[in-house]
UniProtKB/TrEMBL annotation:
InterPro entries xref list: Acid_phosphat_B-like, Acid_phosphatase_pln, APS1/VSP, HAD-like_sf, HAD_sf
CDD domains for the chain: HAD_VSP
Gene that encodes the chain: VSPA
Key word Hydrolase present: no
Family that this chain belongs to: Belongs to the APS1/VSP family.
Alphabetically ordered keywords of this record: Glycoprotein, Signal, Storage protein
Signal peptide stretch: 1-19
Annotated function: May function as somatic storage protein during early seedling development.
Protein's recorded name: Stem 28 kDa glycoprotein
GO MF annotations in UniProt: acid phosphatase activity; nutrient reservoir activity
Length: 258
């Protein structure tokens, strides 16, 4: 016991001395493996760790958010943090874009759902992703054409247009929803684009999003276009082949698409 106390004391002193070298007097305490009364985990902390795993693509192939994390995910999405996280990603995309020299063959790819358009109103009514995906109910929502823009992505879109970059929307929505999607985009503030690509299920039936989006990006490049940027909320938006010069991942703890 004496040896343990002595070791902890050394760590604390070393941490205080290290901080003092930089003009700080903050003590560095040993890592606490658990928090809360009695050393138990606090649910919100483990949910935050789960979301980190999701965004870092360490937690994969999940079908719904953990039941215990409904409140956490809801508060995250409806609070300031989701907007702030989206702002950071979009800002970095713009900082990168403005360093480039463009040609009329340069394109920037945007995903749609949870990237340019927000379905948060739908998911708020369906447990923020805790309920199993219901294609019928979601398609009914899409057909309303009322999804608002994600504000920070809309800002990036407008800035890229001002820089002279061609915009391509590449979405997993089926071709049958092309008209309502185009109308919704314009209603939300996305008035101009070079291409709007939706999934032809007769070609890509049973194929993953990675396979589909890789193939469509390859077609763009074979047509002579250069993908200088690519942004989406799913890892499947930015993995695979022909992903572009640089990719950007927006937060989305509500669902996972492979």
């Amino acid at each position: 016991m004496k040896e343990v106390v002595f070791l902890v004391a050394i760590i604390l002193v070393a941490g205080q001395c290290h901080g003092a070298e930089h003009g700080a007097e903050y003590p560095i305490y040993p890592l606490r493996m658990k928090t809360g009364a009695g050393g138990h985990y606090i649910p919100e902390i483990s949910c935050a760790s789960w979301r980190l795993g999701v965004e870092a693509h360490n937690v994969v192939d999940w079908t719904s958010i953990p039941e215990d994390c409904i409140g956490y995910v809801g508060n995250y999405l409806l609070g300031d943090q989701y907007r702030s996280d989206s702002k950071t990603v979009n800002q970095q995309a713009y900082f990168y874009a403005r360093t480039l020299n463009f040609t009329d063959k340069d394109v920037w790819i945007f995903d749609i759902d949870e990237t340019t358009l927000s379905n948060l109103q739908y998911y708020a009514d369906h447990g923020f992703g805790s309920e199993p995906y219901n294609a019928t109910a979601f398609n009914e929502w899409v057909e309303l054409g009322e999804a608002p823009a994600l504000p920070e992505t809309l800002k990036l879109y407008k800035k890229l247009l001002n820089l002279g970059i061609n915009i391509v929307f590449l979405t997993g929505r089926p071709l049958s929803q092309k008209a309502v999607t185009a109308t919704n985009l314009k209603l939300a503030g996305y008035h101009k684009w070079m291409k709007l690509i939706l999934k032809d299920t007769s070609i890509y039936h049973g194929k993953t999003a990675v396979t589909y989006k890789s193939a469509e990006r390859k077609k763009l490049e074979e047509s002579g276009y250069k993908i200088i940027g690519n942004i989406g909320d799913q890892w499947s938006d930015i993995l695979g082949t022909n992903v572009g010069n640089r990719t950007f991942k927006l937060p989305d703890p509500m669902y996972y698409i492979s």
